[in-house]
Amino acid sequence: MKRYQPILTKYLDEPGSATIDFYLVHEGYRAARKAILEMDAGEIIEEVKASGLQGRGGAGFPAGVKWDFIPKNSKKPTYLINNADESEPGTFKDRLLMNHNPHQMLEGMIIASKAIGCHLAFIYIRGEFVKEARLLETAIAECRANNILGKGIFGSDYNLEIVVHRGAGAYICGEETGLIESLEGKRGWPRIKPPFPAIEGYLKSPTVVNNVETLCNLPHILNEGAAWFRKIGASKESPGPKLYCLSGGVQKPGVYEAPLGTLLETLIYDFAGGIADGRELKAVIPGGSSAPLLKADEIEGLKMDFPSVKAAGSMLGSAGIIVLDDTVDMVQACYNLARFYAHESCGQCTPCREGTTWLTKILARFTAGQGRLEDLDLILEVTDNIGGLIDFSQGSFGKTICPFGEAVAWPVRAFVEKFRAEFEAYLPREALA
Ligand SMILES: Cc1cc2nc3c(=O)[nH]c(=O)nc-3n(C[C@H](O)[C@H](O)[C@H](O)COP(=O)(O)O)c2cc1C
Ligand code: SF4
To answer: Are residues 213 and 249 in the same domain?
Structure first.
């Protein structure tokens, strides 16, 4: 079988890969030039739809379909926002893409902007990414100097500006409507949907929010064609290159590029060198901390694409793969997770605000050896009240304004259901009497 050649991270280790000179020498901005000079918006949307590109920010929504929701001939301006907030624990791929090849992402933004008729686009980058924000400012300035951004780009009559906006470091500002509120200068409180951002987003105008990695795929789709893209990976339904972030108890943590549908075992044992220090695999969180964990015996033959991970009872999410070895205390890990979510809840919805605090308090009691047997069922009841019953075939029951509710309810529930004995072992003797 032919060995997979990285696409998104091809130039990762080359000196100068972040500069426009390097990018132009390596066929950079060929696809953007084509999009601006030779294609109309509808053609770009159709090509991206045909490619099957799914958003890489977590939900896996088809990019071309999302763009098509933007009203045609709207009198309001249309905006593109590049979601570079990357705050899901276990996820660190977008940072890498921005660090080593910012022009690939900017090229993707030019293509997406043309597709939706946007003339002012934003990069919403998390506050802690200081170096990356500066790098992007430099890259944008290079583009302006080369007539790739600004007025009449590539000699056309198309104008496009890109503005870098630094967030203040809140997890919830990665959620697209919380992000939009924050970009408008307000507190990052998610909005009730509908209306969806495509109809009413930034400044109540049609807006597309796309993830960094999603946008980085676009130049390759226009250069090589939708049919080429569809062939990458194990399934035509969920195709393309993917960056997987491996962390936790592996020998070689890091970001690895492989096709969607690569076996989770291949990623853990081949790419990341297996479990560190000769330990055993206990469980894996496959898609960032919001994804329910899978036990070691549940990952056999698991393909890492959107439908396969969903069918296994979890989600591919941001592909932040956190490996838990046999030394991990599941009660402490669950408590750690619950504390994070209680801290990051924006507080708008009662089930999320109160529920995350309750979970944290109950788990604190457990870790202090003061748990009660009935607390285990209480945890499950609280998670039901926050995020609805977990039935992936039916989706969420939507008890909160944004999916943050499910993002805490599902993983906490999975910890308790799958490792109940470990929780019981924390109970004081009298609680079991
Ligand atoms: C609590 C929460 C946090 C999120 N954080 C991020 C993030 O840091 N980066 C991101 O791209 N998407 C994040 N998302 C998903 C975005 O809301 C949105 O779906 C995504 O940016 C759309 O881009 P895509 O279609 O290209 O995937 C988050 C969602 C939720 C509910
Ligand atoms: S679910 Fe939580 S984070 Fe989302 S809007 Fe409600 S309170 Fe805020």
So the answer is: no
